[in-house]
Amino acid sequence: MLYQPELIGGHVALDLLNTVSWRLDPSRTVDRIATAEALATWRAAAGLSGDSDPHRVATVRAVVYDAVLPIARGTGPGDLRELQTLLAGAVRRATPAGPRPMDWGGANLVDELVLAAGRLLEREDLSRLRECQDDGCGWLFLDRSKNGSRRWCSSGDCGNRARAKRHYERVRAGRES
Ligand SMILES: [Zn+2]
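Above: inputs. Below: predicted complex with zinc ion.
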């Protein structure tokens, strides 16, 4: 089946992390950008350019995940040294690309993703950073809802499953009582 990226993170750095599906359930974990073709599909959907090798992107993804997850779980910030090293290299190679004097564009896709992760940690409201509450999902997102009550990566996916499970449990409890 053709890969159709779901960009629900609210930030490209989180959409990168969400290219791993079922991250917290090792029996089901899938890397959606493990091939050059799948990576190109994701890159286009995310509005990015530049060639890169899926292995290098996976390495960056792992570093960004380690930096971001403790913040999403409220135990962070974690160890940012690896990300700092990647950022230093990306900034050295970067060229001005945005409206602000220090909005950098990456020299390649990997650098672009590293710079995006830096912007996430530098500029976004991290009190809004959440992990989907599904046990196996592991997707991360910025909760941009007005009242900050978003619990699921997607209400039509993990949210639906949770509702169906609660319904099933209620029905079963009703039958047993
Ligand atoms: Zn989810």
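The chain is about 50% helix and 10% strand.
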